[in-house]
From TrEMBL:
Keyword Glycosyltransferase: yes
Organism (species): Microcystis panniformis FACHB-1757
Annotated function: Allosteric enzyme that catalyzes the rate-limiting step in glycogen catabolism, the phosphorolytic cleavage of glycogen to produce glucose-1-phosphate, and plays a central role in maintaining cellular and organismal glucose homeostasis.
Annotated InterPro entries: Glyco_trans_35 (IPR000811)
The protein's name: Alpha-1,4 glucan phosphorylase
Top-rank lineage group of the source organism: Bacteria
Cofactors that this protein relies on: pyridoxal 5'-phosphate
GO biological process: one example: glycogen catabolic process
Assigned protein family: Belongs to the glycogen phosphorylase family.
Reactions performed catalytically: [(1->4)-alpha-D-glucosyl](n) + phosphate = [(1->4)-alpha-D-glucosyl](n-1) + alpha-D-glucose 1-phosphate
Keyword DNA-binding included in the entry's annotation: no
PANTHER family in alphabetical order: GLYCOGEN PHOSPHORYLASE (PTHR11468), GLYCOGEN PHOSPHORYLASE, LIVER FORM (PTHR11468:SF3)
Pfam families, per the entry: Phosphorylase
Length: 155
């Protein structure tokens, strides 16, 4: 039986929380849900099938294998290619088409300069809730139950 990864479950929840808390106009997701990962692994995930059935993905992998990015050295990236095609423990090939589709949505949003600028500014401003200063302050107050210590600095 597959164990659910607490990290993956937390990360999936965090993405939804970020969209909710930040009131982001467009939240674009490209990865498999935790449930889909467990289901595919339970059914026997075959990364090679994604390679064979997605022409664009096959072209990307084939270009890497060909030595195009390594001055003709076809062995340099072989461990990465083999890992993707025969193991792919992070299910990157399964996520590829979803990622490509999401990237197209991002590109489309970016082409609308006014919308993109507005989204960027609002999202930046709304990130304050997730600042490390605020997080540390809350940990000090709510979890560790400690108070700040004043430090005098010499000139």
């Amino acid at each position: 039986m597959l164990q659910k990864s607490p990290f993956k479950m937390f990360f999936k929840s965090l993405k939804g929380l970020l969209c909710l808390k930040l009131r982001i106009a467009v939240c674009l997701y490209f990865d498999l849900t935790a449930e889909a990962v467990y289901a595919r692994k339970a059914q026997g995930y075959e990364p090679m099938s994604y390679y064979k059935n997605n022409r664009e993905l096959k072209g990307v992998i084939d270009r890497i294998k060909s030595g195009y990015f390594s001055h003709g050295d076809t062995e340099l990236f072989r461990p990465i290619v083999d890992s993707l095609l025969y193991d792919d423990q992070y299910m990157l090939l399964a996520d590829y088409q979803s990622y490509a589709d999401c990237q197209e949505q991002v590109s489309e949003a970016y082409r609308d300069r006014d919308k993109w600028t507005r989204m960027s500014i609002l999202n930046s401003v709304r990130m304050a809730k997730f600042s490390s200063d605020r997080t540390i302050w809350e940990y000090c107050q709510e979890i560790w139950k400690v108070n700040p210590v004043k430090i005098s600095l010499e000139d």
